[in-house]
Please model this.
Amino acid sequence: MYDLNAHRRATAAETTSRSPARRRDHRSGPTRHGVARHLTARMMIALVLSVSLVPAAAAAQAADRGTVARHAFEAEAPIPSPDAFAALIGAAREQAATAVGDPDSYVIEARFDPGRGTVNGDMRITFVNRTDEALADVVLSLLPNSNDYAGVAIAVDTLRVGGHRIDQPNRGLSEDETSLLVPVSRPLPPGGSIEIAVGFTTTLAPDDDAGNYLELDEPPGTWFLEWWYPILAPYEPSRGWLLAPPVIQTGRAPWGVALYDVTLTMPNDLHAVTTGDLIEERLVGADARRRYVAGPTEAFHAIADEDFTSVSAEVGDSIVRVHADSSEAETARRALTFAEQALAAYSDRFGAYPFRELDIVQTPLKMGMGYSSEGLIVVGSPLSEGYDEDEWDYEPPPFETDPDEVDLVTHEALLAHEVAHQWWGNSVRSDYVAHAFMVEGLTEYVAFTQLEASLGEKVARRVMVDDAVQPYIELLDYEGDEIADRTGRRDLWYATHYGIVYGKGALGFLAINVEIGDAAFDAALRAYAADHAFGVTTPEDLREAFESASGEDLDELWRTWFETAETTPDDVRDLLRAAA
Model:
């Protein structure tokens, strides 16, 4: 194994962590009226490299499983789609092409075998050096080998760089097997590109080991495939390649967006829900071979289930689908109605939803309550054990008496939050580790405003108190305040992360809404979304959007809620009175 200590020293302070999507680790909520109103331009190029790394932990398992055709591309290489942005609606294509320029691309051919619990694949990556310096190497992240994915492993068999076979592909493997340094024969100049080909095997975890992620469930269950393939590591000019392993609970630094051309083969009786659009499907014996195009997106995720039923509706130029167990058809229809309303409202307020499809999977979750990635949302079933009132310490609102109805109100708050992430966190991204409040706090508050518009001020007010005010007040009482603009750190335990990032963060954006008014608040976010679509933003970008739209200096307000740890319960009460 290659010693990456030199690289790790350069990035020792990194807390790169994972969250795709999925940003919601608790219930969602926020408000706006009453309490809430106030309260890429080329398609994936055929690459030439072929990577294959076999971590020691997975080698023995790989021998047992056998190998599928390791060089599938040589036998049947998919022709890149002529439409690089096929997953986008027409209005978003020019915007995406301008924003991402010459993006990285992935062409993946893989087979999922639920019986063996494996994904075998070959992939070709085109990496474009968008930095201002020549790069002597490229780093791939192997997220399934992280301790966060207990029982999961990714094994790589072959590696080619620029068409040249690497005889010892594991030589660049880090000690913890979560990063692979890929050598470049000559430094890659700014603007230059290199092709890397990778063959890999990912082994899924037994049902109880990996939470929801990369999970092998017993039929008729659900299989979650997240970060299931080698992916280019994040790169920052000031710190280089970010090599620290991901942290599921508190998020991660953003990966760059890329274009994807993915062909997945799996048993035909599995209903597959993925990132991107299905463009091609054919039967191969008892299997279905499906081809998808996605992007610009940070990653390509897939969920498979034997018993999904789907309902759909059109919203503007997009289609919204909700997929759920057939026993939950009624709640799936209700979820569709609410998601349809949220997507339409957010599109009107912040600019059109950019993708042609939005897929929402409603299924029992053992870890968190939901997560969101570009065009794909997963939320816990409203009638599953994950929503038990005692377990989540959720006090039923006094205006509801039916426990199932309480679950559904919570579920709709969650949907409002995850749909809002399609703008804040997915289309417009931020460094989740350093500035999580920009993602979760803003999303939380925006979701409260939608909840008020759809379910009324009474419901929205109660959800905001439960989901933002109470967690933050309890934190102030027991732990003291924290700075919101610095809270994606690993040393923050979950309640602190939630109370500050979601609670204080949402209240800070409520304070801005109260100060500048609804019209300026929405105008600011609409301009922010348009100016930074498919990009990575900083707190200064967001603050500038609010100040530009309102003409006000928000320095003191911004510092109070996001940059200092001096807020008191009295400040919270004063804000709520001003918002009422």
